[in-house]
Specification:
This protein is of the alpha/beta class and 810 residues long. Helix content is 35%, strand content 16%. It has 25 helices and 27 strands. Strands 17, 18, 19, 20, 21, 22, 23, 24, 25, 26 and 27 form an 11-stranded mixed beta sheet that branches. Strands 4-11-6-12-10-9 form a 6-stranded mixed beta sheet. The longest helix is centred in the last third of the chain and has 27 residues, at 746-772.
């Protein structure tokens, strides 16, 4: 309930009585108390929400008889429905209107939540994502919205197995639907141009193919009724006995979930006929599930473990019992009654590869985190932007950065999640003039001034360091001081001339002038997604061992000759109008698990440079960007950093940047040079990290052709090249796992091994299709040193893929 952040009505201000679509939401909470202490605890929570003047009031439905009823004689229960079974309370909740007129029609949508769900954004934002997804098109192709999933999920904790994400998913912006549906009354953060990923439900596995989910699943009301009808029909056919309980499939929440998924399978043909074949998930984490104890005996999923298997010690106070065990609900109840609550800020700053987690972070009522490391870093951030050319794009780019501060200033204060560690009180923007001759920098400065002229409490200062002197744009500064004598947020723009031509030199020059320890990269033709900087700041302040944090990117083009959308899907389009049509090319989804990311970086750069935020001291320690590298300077930098610590780089599963593709991109104009430099960077990294060659030497047994064949098997020129690439891969795997044995999680080791298997399968497929189909002797030779080495290797490591091998031989 606290994580929902239900809107509070301020009676002192009539301006706050704006309509909100959350007012049209009914919240029913079905409770079951087994002791008088828990009955008292539920009642305390109910009374709290009765006293707070929120726009909606949760309705508590009590299942069965309260134990220790005499202990609650002093409590008024006139508005409490009790002594009911779960099935009857579920029916009541689905057919009763509270927030609206009782005579109003049935709701359009239903969201299920369990008591261990923690929302990472307010309920209004979550529902906006869900409803926007389900209304994606008029054909109702999207069956559900799964709040607890996101692109960073790669593990299923409840089954203790890997959970690879679907291969067919596509990113879709919700901006057109959110603006149309909620523009008049939505929370400001609803209109932040978030998107969702849609995928064919059947293409998923484990977590991604679980259509009925009570932990955050959102559905159309009519589809929920269709599932309930199917369960009742099956119960009737089985005389109420269906494996779990004599009371049928609606006797318990867990039974309902299991039977609901069985019902979906039973009515699959109806769903396919209705074209309801897609599932939707958010593009960033919106929920975690605290799987810290088990209070039911229907399902026996394992309890998630944290680092200590207990409440995080750093969040306990002297008044708490340090032996508090999260598997004991009674101990957690005592913490609640003593004024302790979950520290929602800590969950926002901690990345997870599973939706079910075992961490318990506590805070007091003021949400002052007990972790000292969160308080030490400065709130400032430096944004580093090299500018060469881009007069048509820079206005939108710089506006998207300035708007990060504007959004932060206008966000409502929230004691639950906005402590000092989540503030953005000052910003430095370092613009590096890399031989810019088209007026782009002047356009950027004018855009900033125009944008901030109407903004309250933001002070803009511009310092031009070119021509050997510092020039302060004093007139605008003095004008702002007169209007805003006490600015809340300050923005300083420093314009620097690059010492030498090239991106690497421009970045090193800019780094020398960055005054913050935390530096965010940005390109002058890209667009910063809403909430990017504050999300990365929050993470970096809470995770001092990480030196670089990246994010996802939406790659788009403004060419008019493609299947286009209106440019209103672009973030901040209203403050930087663009007449061109927009086409989403694809999304760049980074690797989330840091150990696995370190492994994948040996093959290709899996980090989008404009999305990163890094610690300046960590970059200085490895001597910055290599200015001899013209096109792959970022890739070389990350590989050198990972040589020191395989867990120093991490990516967060949210869209941080909209990356513009156009004919002047470096990856377009210098694609061959970029590929060559990337292969050379891989060669150096493998020699040092895998083959342990000294910094100034290379291993003569390693040919760069082997690396090229490993990275792109289709370019291999001989069967020997394929075999050598496979031998190199085996050497890389064993050495990497051995050297990082103490740093990798079991899940990351499995990811690396599975990745190796996939690469071996690709090499073997190329070997037979390109070199061996007409010469089967190659593939009858069983020696590990023979011409069919890669084929035999694939057979040994992946015995279950016989069908794939047979299909190649036929």
């Amino acid at each position: 309930l606290r994580s929902m952040k239900l809107p509070i009505i301020d009676n002192a201000s009539s301006d706050n009585h704006e309509a909100s679509f959350v007012q049209r939401v009914d919240i029913f909470i079905i409770c079951r108390a087994t002791t008088a202490d828990f009955a008292e605890g539920y009642e305390q929570i109910r009374q709290t929400y009765c006293q707070v003047d929120t726009q909606i009031k949760p309705c508590f439905l009590y299942e069965g008889e309260w134990m220790g009823r005499d202990a609650l004689d002093h409590v008024s229960i006139s508005d409490i429905i009790e002594n009911k079974s779960f099935s009857s309370l579920l029916e009541y909740a689905l057919n009763t209107r509270c927030a609206t007129d009782a005579a109003s029609p049935a709701p359009s949508f239903v969201m299920f939540l369990t008591d261990d769900c923690v929302l990472l954004d307010c309920l209004e934002v979550v529902l906006a994502h869900a409803i926007g997804s389900l209304q994606y098109d008029q054909k109702d192709r999207v069956f559900n919205f799964l709040t607890r999933l996101h692109p960073g999920i790669s593990r299923c904790q409840t089954r203790d197995c890997m959970s690879p994400s679907p291969r067919d998913w596509q990113y879709h912006s919700l901006a057109p639907y959110l603006n149309k549906a909620f523009d008049a009354y939505a929370h400001e953060s609803v209109k932040q141009h978030d998107g969702v990923y849609l995928y064919t439900t059947k293409s998923g596995s484990t977590e991604w193919n679980y259509p009925v989910d009570l932990s955050g699943g959102v559905y159309r009301y009519k589809d929920v009724q269709m599932i309930l009808k199917q369960i009742r029909t099956e119960d009737k056919d089985c005389n109420g006995k269906h494996g779990f309980s004599d009371q049928g499939g609606l006797s318990h929440p867990n039974t309902f979930e299991v039977r609901g998924n069985q019902a979906v399978l039973a009515i699959d043909n109806d769903l396919v006929a209705a074209r309801k074949t897609l599932s939707a998930v958010p593009s960033r984490p919106l929920m975690v599930v605290l799987a810290i104890n088990r209070v039911q005996d229907v399902c026996h999923a394992p309890i998630a473990g944290s680092g200590e298997g207990r409440v995080a010690q750093s969040t306990l106070t002297a008044n708490d019992n340090n032996s508090t065990d999260p598997t004991d609900p009674s101990a957690l109840l005592k913490l609640l009654l003593n004024g302790r609550n979950l520290d929602l800020e800590r969950y926002l700053s901690t990345p997870y590869n599973s939706s079910h987690i075992g961490d318990v972070f506590l805070c007091d009522q003021l949400n002052v985190s007990q972790s000292s490391e969160l308080q030490e870093l400065s709130p400032d951030v430096s944004v580093l932007i090299p500018v060469h050319r881009g007069v048509y794009f820079v206005s939108h780019s710089i506006a998207s950065i300035i708007m990060q501060c504007v959004d932060e200033l206008h966000q409502p204060l929230d004691d639950e999640t906005r402590g000092p560690q989540s503030s953005l009180s000052s910003m430095q923007i370092v613009i590096v003039d890399d031989r810019c001759d088209d007026g782009s920098i002047d356009v950027m400065i004018q855009s900033c001034k125009k944008l901030l002229d109407s903004q309250q409490n933001i002070l803009l200062m511009v310092f031009d360091h070119r021509e050997g002197q510092i020039t302060l744009h004093e007139e605008h500064q003095q004008q702002q001081k007169r209007h805003h004598p006490q600015p809340t947020i300050s923005i300083a723009i420093d314009i620097i001339a690059s010492k030498s031509p090239g991106v690497a030199s421009a970045l090193n020059t800019g780094l020398d002038h960055c005054r913050s320890e935390l530096v965010a990269r940005m390109d002058a033709d890209d667009i910063c997604a809403p909430g990017r900087l504050i999300s990365q700041l929050r993470f970096m302040r809470g995770n001092s061992s990480v030196n670089v944090v990246g994010a996802s990117a939406v790659i788009f083009s403004t060419k008019d000759d493609q299947d286009t959308n209106d440019c209103t899907i672009l973030p901040y389009h209203s403050v930087a109008p663009n007449s061109n049509q927009c086409h989403i090319v694809r999304t760049s989804l980074p690797v989330i698990d840091p150990g696995f990311l370190s492994w994948t970086m040996l093959f290709t750069c899996t980090i989008s440079h404009p999305t990163v935020m890094f610690r300046k001291s960590a970059i200085d320690e490895i001597r910055g960007y290599d200015e001899s590298i013209k096109c792959a300077e970022d890739y070389d930098l990350w590989l050198r950093m990972l040589e020191k610590d395989c867990r120093s780089i991490l990516c967060l599963p949210f869209v941080g940047v909209w990356h513009r593709k156009h004919k002047h991109n470096n990856s377009v104009t210098n694609s061959l040079a970029q590929k060559k430099e990337a292969n050379e960077a891989c060669y150096r990294a493998i020699c040092k990290k895998i083959l342990s060659s000294p910094d100034d030497e290379t291993d003569e047994s390693l040919d760069i052709e082997h690396i090229t064949a490993l990275k792109d098997p289709a370019t291999a020129t001989s069967l020997d090249s394929i075999n050598n690439a496979a031998r190199l891969l085996m050497n890389m795997e064993s050495t990497f796992l051995q050297k990082n044995d103490m740093c990798l999680t079991e899940h990351e080791i499995k990811l690396i091994q599975n990745d190796c298997n996939a690469r071996i399968g690709e090499l073997a497929t190329i070997a037979i299709s390109k070199f061996g189909k007409d010469n089967t002797d190659h593939f009858k030779f069983n020696s590990s040193e023979g011409p069919c080495y890669v084929w035999r290797l694939w057979s040994d490591r992946c015995p279950n893929e016989q069908f794939q091998r047979l299909s190649l031989l036929c």
